Amino acid sequence: MNGFSLQDVADALDNQLSRQALHRYEKGEVIPDAEKINLLSKALNVSPDYFFRATKVELGEIEYRKLNKIPQKEASIIKEKTKEYLSRYLELEEILGLDNEFHNPLEDIGTVTTYNQINQAAEMLREAWGLGNKGAIFNVVELLEDKNIKVVKLDVDEDFDGLQTCVNGKIPVIAYNLKKANKPDRIRFTILHELAHLLMDFGDIPEKQKEILCHQFAGAMLLPEGTIKAELGEHRNKLSTLELGNIKKQYGISMQAITMRAKNCGIINDHYTKQFFFIFKQMNWRVDEPYDYAGVEESNRFEQLLFRALIEEQISMSKAASLNNQSLAEFKKEHQMMF
């Protein structure tokens, strides 16, 4: 989780424990006492309870976005941070006796290989989840958490956008990068892109085609065909950045994604789409678009469950602090209004 070698851990401990001693702990040849565990906890930024956690988390096959840009060391950090958070989350659900079974509304649609199938899948999912076929999705993270899909935010390398996997063979997980939090429209799109990977079978199509279909699914979820045609009209010869900016602010989807969505829905042609993206490139908007989306992408479910367990005396305050990966003093200070 920290990207440390054994020597890095020894250095973080100011060599109170040698690399050789740490190696013996790692191999299970020697068991550290409470004092040593406290030292290790501080150096590794985890609570002592981390070393005694009984909840097991087994990640399934992980699919990263932009995998080729992520070094192996960083990929390991991402994997372990995901497992650590989920172990706390799942233990909390176990304590409360909650059912985290997930039902995939798209499990019977078969192999998806075309845009029309993707568009229909997005319509089916919006209907199954009670989103209707027109309105904006207020909070994608909260929506998925409510449907028993665990959403993990990670503070990791800038090159990481997102991943999706399955935990313990049954619990779907999507992770995104906290460093993208200043661009919630990008977070929304990334999460829904990963959702497409989770819910659908794309068969043996080339990876590039699969990525395009997942992009199209994210666009269709955020901006259904009826909605974008109501906003822009059935056919257009030109678009203005002002109207795209207004749609972005309302629906939480980037201007570039809106433009591609307009092309996919037959509102603008391929030639004009390329011209418009040339303008994006000239204005450096491919990286930093104007017209910020002000929505919030956050779920308080974990925190709500934590307080519920604490208030109902199913866990102690020290256990609550541990599940929140804090010391008891830190937890009390942060939540002093509760007590």
Features:
single chain; 339 residues; mainly alpha; 4-stranded mixed beta sheet; 4 strands; 50% helix; 6% strand
How much beta, percentage-wise?
A: 5-15%
Structural class given helices, strands, pairing? mainly alpha
* Major beta sheet, strand line-up: 1-3-4-2
The percentage helix is 40-55%
Q: How would you characterize this protein structure?
A:
32% of the residues are buried. Helices cover 50% and strands 6% of the residues. The protein is mainly alpha-helical and 339 residues long. A hairpin with a 3-residue loop joins strand 3 and strand 4. A four-stranded mixed β-sheet has the order 1-3-4-2, sandwiched between helices. Helix 4 packs parallel to helix 13, helix 7 crosses helix 8 and helix 8 packs across helix 11. The chain has 15 helices and four strands.
